[in-house]
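Let us practice reading a record.
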Amino acid sequence: MNKGWYRIDKKIAKSAAMRRFISFLVSLYVRLVWLTSRFEIIGADEPRARWESDEPFILSFWHGRLLMMPYCWDRSKKVGMLISNHRDGELIANTIGHFGLGTIRGSSAKAGKQSKGGTEALREMLKTLKQGNYVGITPDGPRGPRMRASDGIVAVARMSGVPVIPATSATKARIRLGSWDRFLVPLPFTKGVIMWGDPILIPKDKGPEAAEAARLKIEQAMNDLADRADRYVGQECVAPAPMPQHEAAG
């Protein structure tokens, strides 16, 4: 259990039918939490305005808070959520599919470590945004470090010219797992919030210094938003993972 809701026995994970069944059960649980709890949605004027005017943007939220995030979205609008190609990713993709959300399979790897799948995912995200649709990214996924943004989201925002809009969720009653992302499992019959932040437009400036400044801007905005949401429901804030050594040295 301490590895997260999506980590299951390897023998079970090899069964596509079992993965689909588990994803269905998870989707039922998410609906149960939503229907039995009192959720507020705060700060949604900006995304609503962009949905109404068909203006694309990049939805950004931390991996550890993804369980309730399907309810932040206007399901009449097409979105491609970036999901890893791992079996864990397939469980997540199947689960959010029950809420009408699409997926883009790949990875938002660190700069200089982009895989073939990551390159293809980047192209697909840029194509999706160019068509006037939307993209969702967990910039600390699929393996962390927790609540530290990768360079991938900066590349998508800079190349597409569309803003990043952070979002988060929090509940008063929850279980915090011991997984790398400190995955939050909300409990039914509780108080909850879905909170949106301000849009972040990334300049088209190139170079490592500009990219790092943009990455830190996104990361800080997302962590501030997560802290606000936790405090709003009376919960202790989840701390980011220690800063990677190369960043701390910089």
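A brief commentary: The CA atoms of residues 11 and 18 lie 10 Å apart.
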